[in-house]
Amino acid sequence: MSRQINLPSNQIKLTNVSLVRLKKGKKRFEIACYKNKVLEWRSGIETDLDNVLQIPNVFLNVSKGQTAPKEDLEKAFGKGKSTDDIVLEILKKGELQVGDKERAAQLERVHNEVISIVVSKLVDPRTKRVYTPGMIEKALDMLSSQAHQNNNNTEKEKSTDSGAATPTTGEAGEAKPKTKEHTWTGVTTTKSAKSQALDAMKALIAHQPIPVARARMKLRVTCPTNVLKQAVKAPKAAAKEDEDGSGEAKAPGTVKDRILGYVEQVESQDVMGSEWEVVGFVEPGAFKALSDFIGNDTKGQGRVEVLDMAVTHED
């Protein structure tokens, strides 16, 4: 005898879903998103909400298809807020629920991006050569192990110390504040790769598990003056750059603007006859993009000359 199972007509079946949850007041609200799209939206890669949300609705329980009543939304988020506003707030502030495999893949992606950024910005100050990703990984692993060991020792000291801690004093007997050391404990998925790469570089420079220094390439760029004012389309990423205050150029409009956008520090620029020349410092990671731009957008009329492969400098 066959049996028919009747599902509720209002049940919503979702597949390949990532949940974003936000607790507001005494209720927990959820939105259903496509996998991997939440992080792309938060990093600015994806801007179309239709590509992020599976259903533009707010739920109390996505798996049960239980949508949040209007009264609950008004009580938690305030009256007058549209569903879109509430969805955006959950998307910005909510906790992304991911499975173990997805979390591991996400961590690996961030880790690889952090290593790639660090490799492009640090050199061996003795040889002025960049390190391989493997060398940078080993150096960061050393710092991570050291940081965890120090944390364990600190916890042990706290547990065995029955007296009150006394501050370190200087020569005048005044309390000496502790200086914050740059430490590295490993990659997380809760911060951007750029900010973590900056932390990693600070820790490597401070502790020197291998000899490292920030570096820039010294270049001379020449280009005919009649090409400089030509308008160019900015790359898509340029308009979203600099979220972490790295000082990179944002959506320049002319050939000259784009060239100077790649130059971290201008040493000199001059016009000689019909040719413009700029000498300046560029981070190694930006060299290829600058060379490609000069080759493509100036139609071979511009030139890039490397004056020094790696000029070390202090931040």
From TrEMBL:
GO terms for cellular component: cytoplasm; nucleus. Residues 173-183 have a biased composition (Basic and acidic residues). Pfam families: SBDS_C, SBDS_domain_II, SBDS_N. Residues 16-103 form the Ribosome maturation protein SDO1/SBDS N-terminal domain. NCBIfam families: RNA_SBDS. GO terms for molecular function: 5.8S rRNA binding; guanyl-nucleotide exchange factor activity; large ribosomal subunit rRNA binding; rRNA primary transcript binding; small ribosomal subunit rRNA binding. It is found in: Cytoplasm; Nucleus. This is Ribosome maturation protein SDO1. One of its GO terms (biological process) is cytosolic ribosome assembly. Associates with the 60S ribosomal subunit. Residues 231-309 form the Ribosome maturation protein SDO1/SBDS C-terminal domain. Residues 148-188 are annotated as: Disordered.
